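Two folds, back to back.
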Amino acid sequence: MIDHIKIRELISADYDGQAAAEEKQVIEEHLEGCAQCRKYAEGFPKLSAALHAWPNEDLSPDLEQRIQGRLQRMKSKEGPEMKTKPRLVAVGGGGLIVAFLVLVVSMQVYVQRGIQGRIRDAADNIGAPSTAQPLVKSSQLAPQKLPMSQDKRIQYEPYYLSSNYKAEMDAGSQIFGAPRKLRSAADDIGDQFSPGNTPLAVYGALSESVMSPQTMPAQRPDLWDESGRYNPQFNTEQYNRIYENEFLEVAQNPLSTFSIDVDTASYSNVRRFLNNNQMPPADAVRIEEMINYFTYDYPKPTGEHPFSITTKAAVCPWEPRHELVLVGLQGKTFEAQNIPPSNLVFLMDVSGSMDQPDKLPLLKSSFRLLVNQLRDEERVAIVVYAGNAGLVLESTPGSDKQRILEAIDRLQAGGSTAGGAGIQLAYKIAKENFIKSGNNRVVLATDGDFNVGVSSDGELTRIIEEKRKDGIFLTVLGFGTGNYKDSKMEQLADKGNGNYYYIDTLNEGKKVLVSELGSTLFTIAKDVKIQIEFNPSQVKAYRLVGYENRILAKEDFNDDTKDAGELGAGHTVTAMYEIVPVDSAETFSSVDKLAYQKTEVVPSSDLMTVKLRYKDPDGETSKLIQQTVKAEDVSAEPAGDFQFASVVAEFGLILRDSKFKGNASYEHVAKGAAVSKGKDTYGYREEFIDLVGKAQALDMRVDSGTTGIIFKGE
């Protein structure tokens, strides 16, 4: 029986000039009687011409690294006999399973140049003159598909490299690397070489989502989901699955208990996707972190406790039959002379994966901002890790800023990622320089891609849980794209009495490490838990908006051994409940009535009671605060900060395509945000409004000819 696959391997080798004389004879004899293989052979000149017509133009560094990784893996599979020009391995029916490899081989200029030099060039070009065109405003964008007959070349410029990003953002945002563009040939090169008639193309900055339809060549429709998200094979970003909180009946579940969350990484990560013309993956959208990215003007604490509690209620904007309740905390602030001294250990990832413009260069510039804020009595040590961990700067006083800055400037990336060893060494250094009644903290900066030694999530979190007993807190700063491990870093911060931020631009680095330095580094309360008791005479059911990863058992509220979130100096924390009034006709999942117990409802006008427990930063026994929310406190609609927080939550519901989104719409979000923008000193709320417009333009679910958001199939 003739093996057509083997014959096609020989055809490929012959076209590359690698077939022996006897192999050529076998090919000729076979082609005389096989029309299918003859058609296959006749297609090679057309493919070659298309590849040679593709211009040698720059690729994004992250794509270059992934291509090289793919080549190395293929070489390891082929063994030492793999030739410089690989053969095309055919499958039945004439399709190719390595058409992408042909494109890679055509990039000879890239192979000769190498990844490291390419990335260094970008890093060295900081501040280079701009040649980029002005960005199109989101309001001018409209979802549209590019016809196959039009030019299929795409222009891609990473937003963190764009010289125009500074104009789009607040002044002071530094751009890393000169503007660079990737063009990708996507010309049709024959049905047999393009399965599904899909033009071959190479894209930059691949992730769980890809570029917007209006900037992309036509794609196979089966590769897109209903929201316009795309899942290319090169992406290795990781996000924990989020199972949204359901509505619970008060009669059977009167208590809701959760840990506070001061992380804001989700918002800046979502911003990175939208600024990169991509819809974020649903599991990258943690609504509580989006809400808590912004500060709110809650009353300052005046009593013995380090924070105040604010409660507000109004008709729910996206579901008028329901009500929305806000619970807000405002942490106390310190006068400069009363801020406790800090013992900081910078733990920096300098592995090979960090050698990209939005990773180590951005990390170094962000930490320079922090160093310039240090007081003389504060101390900093620097630990780095790649293939192994090492101390590059012993604990140094803040008065010697030049020495600290020089140590940061000398950092270079290369090697594998022994994150576990780095964490252990950093905590060891922090313990050796421990300041009693001070702020002792490890600041971890990484893309989270640990791959040497202790690297599993379970092993790393166990290390962190053990080290936090020494009174050392943790701040996690995430950097980069493509191999970003959000799930790992969120867990580390949660288990390490810490907080977690994602740094996508220098502007964000300034926000976290300068403007909000107190809330980032100085803890005023730890193990902060909230428990809500709902009144069944007023509330039929409730749903906590967000905080899915922070839910606690009701017994955990009074258990001082249970870990919970930390609150920083001056920090605001906001949580929201969507509640269903008791007279609603809606039904919810329930269980049969108990045979041996009866619950008596006490008449009351209270909607709910809010209880909160916390510990002092060096304490082991919790303290209790509580207050009530009255039914008459419910207003017709949210106003001020309450309104702004509610539209941020609504935006998150839309991005997640939540089944609880109700009447949520981009238009309502944008309008509500504009009305409630307030003073907006740093422009963060104005930026939010801009992101809403970008999301609306990118979202393939939106019918742009209507008001509101229309989801396909509804």
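---
second:
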Amino acid sequence: MQPTPSVDPDASDLRPPGPDECRFCGARPAAKVTFRGHQGMILIMRFLHTDGPFCRDCGLAVFRSMTAKTLYQGWWGYASFLITPGIVLLNLFRRSRVARLEEPYATPGLITPQSRPLDPGKPLYQRPAILGLLLPVALVAAFVAVVASDSQTGECVRVSGSRGTVVSCSQSHQQKVIATVERDSDCPADAEGYMEYNGKVLCTRAD
């Protein structure tokens, strides 16, 4: 009796991943999630997306890659300063759907782009792209500083001897702040005096 030779499975028996299998490696379990990205290029913007389903590892890899690129490419369009934070927050929200999946296991008989799950790589906070968060923080801080530096305009000054104190105009006062400038020479022509306050020059006149 002759031994039965082993036969490789016919290629026609292979199939693409199903709706509950990872689109990249075919592993299960998988979640149907879409991660998005954004590129701002001054006058042109690009909206990117990668659709699932993803297993845990492939989903984390896509999330980290697209979000990291958005953090350093997403701030340079005319409306990107508003769009990019929304996309980053959306990705963070959707991340939990893949992060809570169990460890992926292979599904045999599939045709897939990857033979195994993608390497998720380093978390976002350990990547240089996280420095992209410093840009909006710096811009907001600069805006707040400018607003704060000009916040004394319209307030009043109480003079006591040679010392002036910024107070609300509802309190007793002698002068009103009409401008906040860098140097006393920049005060408007109708200013009658000035005082230094928090590194700025407050231009005043009698009130």
